[in-house]
């Protein structure tokens, strides 16, 4: 691809410091690094006697500085560049230490003595020093080295060497270590060992089935499902508590370190996160990612996570949403350290708002809501009103002297998207679920969120990408009030195709009788998925699989279904259920009376229990398992093709077909033979059946919408309500089940053999079981 003349010059410039062409071109793709590296090289040239000649070792360090440093110390780079050019910073260890040192106090003038001490500037490590330390380390570990040979973890030796010689060049240290190990152990020839390992790793199918700890994508065959923290947590590379200042874009003030020390005294350096939902609706699949991220990251680091209700919008909050949110968090397997509310601190938030006014950082404004919409909001004519006037007006707002929309309190700051002076307080004459009628002014998210985070000493404020534009106001507000300032980290939100999760749109689906309620199994609210039979472990596994990406993720629901199958495959007992029964009478029934058979709940796993089923002269099979006009690959029952019955070892052959007035088969007369009898041809397929059945209702769910994005007007010009799949629910009211379902409770899960995975619905009564299809089987087992 052609690049501009300017970039051609930059390409040559980057190659002049030792970057190869590929790396130089890759660097050009990043606008910020490109300009920073260009400025770094030009600054370096002013520090060198021959400005056109930069050695590769210096060039590598200049590149490392440009790619590893943080925005908050870019203005201090000239000091590090000077040390690099004077070869006082000689390796990346020293450079990293110097960067960390400047981050602790990113202001001019720098403490040169402290910087040089932190980064080992002036410390000379000779080759003799390296040889001496390497020999000492090897001597101390000689016994284990001789026992284990090259299988001994060399990283342990290198880490010890680096500990003793902090400022030694890493490559020189490793080269010397390799040389000494060669002298002690000889060549590292692993070919023979690798052959043995490969042979040992080729297990027979029998050995594999006996293994009880094989992990496949987070699901073990010993029925353990790994958690979000198990699978993703180690990949999260966030700042350590107390090192907020090392985060890109973190804003510091002269009081930052005093506040940080006070924060660490209160928390003991513990990781503290929070999950802050609005209690105005039911949580959906996107919230599952947020729950797993916040609770999972805290759990991984032995930290704590608050459940904090963002109850700043009293008009839409209902008690059922408060209890429903906590219920779902616990269902997913997490226990909040503490349940809090934004409203717990309304008094403090109000006092801080007055302090903002006193500092001339907030004012009462009378612009209408329509005027404040969008990003190009004109400056308010009341922005510079006197402080005392704003204080009095804010007091008047609190005491109900203005109508809704007549006044707001706005903060004097600019958000990252350019929006000017976000609203901090607005007037709402509404009863609040927790504070009652005490307040008629309520704080906004932009004002409340960061301050509540500060109060609760949150270390990692994790939120979705759409809140990135609020990061600057988040830092500004904490710093404006001289409060401890957490770090806001953004991640991409999770979306699924073929659904809507907007509260407003779900309400419309309910109002239009498309779905019954928030827990209708066709929705992707978490209560709906639970009712449909999705295990919480599967949802957590799904969140772990997709990981924590910074970009927005829109996935096909099949990926979630696959996780559900994996979990249910090892947790759902098997039963036989016939959805559309066809009566079969065995004319030569081989027993004198009804038989009871013992069937394993899980194939091949006797230790996991069994259940008893009945077999008699009348059984019921799936209507679709019999065909009078079969295709070539049809392997089940036909007038000319026998078929086997699962679990009983019998083969049935059609003798006669009883029909109704529409000429449809309503009963088959068959004869049976034992599979083991001499002369009996092994059938092509085996089908499930039920005898002495338990009648039940089975609900089959399909996608609610016809198009992948029902909210996209290009796909669906008439709106999402016009895109409803009219066949999204099929009810089989006369399904027959074996006795394996007896005594099942609501939300108990089963695999209906050859059909799919199902869960007991809350509509179940003493008279009749109701099942929801959770997901189909991984493959269509009908084709056998």
TrEMBL record:
UniProt GO MF annotations: ATP binding; glutamine-tRNA ligase activity
SUPFAM superfamilies: Nucleotidylyl transferase, Ribosomal protein L25-like
Domain tRNA synthetases class I (E and Q) anti-codon binding, residue spans: 686-761
Catalytic activity reported: tRNA(Gln) + L-glutamine + ATP = L-glutaminyl-tRNA(Gln) + AMP + diphosphate
One family name in Pfam for this protein: tRNA-synt_1c_C
InterPro entries: aa-tRNA-synth_I_CS, Gln-tRNA-synth, Gln-tRNA-synth_Ib_RNA-bd_2, Gln-tRNA-synth_Ib_RNA-bd_N, Gln-tRNA-synth_Ib_RNA-bd_N_1, Gln-tRNA-synth_Ib_RNA-bd_N_2, Gln/Glu-tRNA_Ligase, Glu/Gln-tRNA-synth
Record's keyword annotation contains Aminoacyl-tRNA synthetase: yes
UniProt name for this protein: Probable glutamine--tRNA ligase
